[in-house]
Amino acid sequence: MNARISLDPPRSLLYRAVSWYSKREYGKVIDPVRATAHHKQALWAGSRFEMSVARWKALDPDLKELAVMVTAATIGCSWCMDFGYWANHQRGMDTRKLQDVPVWRESEAFTPLERDVMEYAEAMTVTPPQVEDVLVERLRTALGDAALVELTTMISVENMRARTNSALGLTSQGFKDHCEVPGPAGR
After folding, report:
1. pTM of the model
2. What is the mean pLDDT of residues 123-148?
3. Could you tell me the domains of the chain?
């Protein structure tokens, strides 16, 4: 599928600044920036919002990222899955966990708490949401109030990201391709 919006946006000072940052952080201008740049206020607001979200630290980063990836997988955002795999591989997350996110229920790679986080992400993401009180209470007991609020908000944030990217037709940008370590010759 091709993007449903031009990924060659109008140039502006803001776009140049955000593009510079994207290239520095990710090695290229990410497609969500290129798509959003068609609306300067949306690009500005989204950039400020993402910088704020990046500073939240109440929740363990691996739990946060597993929730984000399950949300993206539930929605079916290939751009988000590609980028999430790469970003978490860069952070040092266990490769087996990254590979098993789409099949987390069948995988033995995850702890009980990680499974609860992923179940919560999935339950929040389906329409209508199907969050159960007993699951929230387990998470609240394990994480505390601040981390539960951060988890809930991160899942909501990823719902916005993934649904926007999917609606605009943004697909894999090849990030995951730069993570794989080639196997020995002859295999």
Report:
1. 0.92
2. 98
3. 13-55 (no CATH), 61-167 (1.20.1290.10)
